[in-house]
Predict the structure.
Amino acid sequence: MQEILEQALKEGRAQIEKGEVASYIPELAKADKNHLGICIFTKEGERFEAGDTQTRFSIQSISKVISLAMALEKCGFERVFEKIGMEPSGDAFNSLIKLDMVSDAPYNPMINSGAIAVTGFLTEVVSFETMLEFARKLCMDPQIEVNRAVFYSEMENLSRNRAIAYLLESKGVIKTNVESCLELYVQMCSLNVTAKSLAGLGLVLANGGMHPESGARLLDPDVVRIVKTIIFTCGMYDGSGEFAVSVGIPTKSGVGGGLLSVVNKKMGIGIYGPSLDKKGNSIAGRAALKYLSEHLGLHMFAS
Ligand code: GLU
């Protein structure tokens, strides 16, 4: 396994030059483009890692997975999906075109409009401190904190998400205070994680919501099933379909360079690689995952 992982790292590194770090949140532009770390946690308790697995970076969109899980736990399926769809949008993560022109409901909870709507529900029922504790437990990483520099940087460059949030309010999707909702959304996006934290989260999801060591139930099995399905169909922005065909592992990406992958009933994989492709997905991370999928037989429909 370690040899395959090292080779996956090489395959990934060969792609780094073709991508760019995110810069629309200025603080993210400071990331070292050459970083790449991969971590695998298996259900049997094995841990494998290669490259920059200790580096902290902001979780960004991968927090949408944690927020959706909490909203389903606290508010239930009916309430969450009454105003949010489950379909891939085919548009960029921060698009508001379809939300304005085609549908009054965001297409799914993995794009900004859907995640901001989810955060609207959360703002009514939980505090940020509760969300932080929840994130630490699910990622099996008690050291997760808000990255203050990233938080302020995003709060100062929030016009587009603010437009989405007020559009959602005008359509009756957000019924709570819009600014508080945005603050919670950005706090969640600013959580500082490592590739290991994402492997931990992936393993908890792969394990049906149970802590792999203590056996404690962290999430309801139905919640886990819904979350994993939505990650598979919508987790890689408007590259989700092609990724499902060629890599075949449910994965959620974030513009901070993270990838959270769930190999059902087997393992969690966490990757950090801030050089992004045009759709906002880690370019090296994607190549490394494809290699792992092919060499470990991890495609969901592998023959
Ligand atoms: N905080 C980022 C935003 O809302 C998250 C985007 C992402 O990772 O896709 O723009």
In short: The first strand starts at residue 37 and ends at 42.
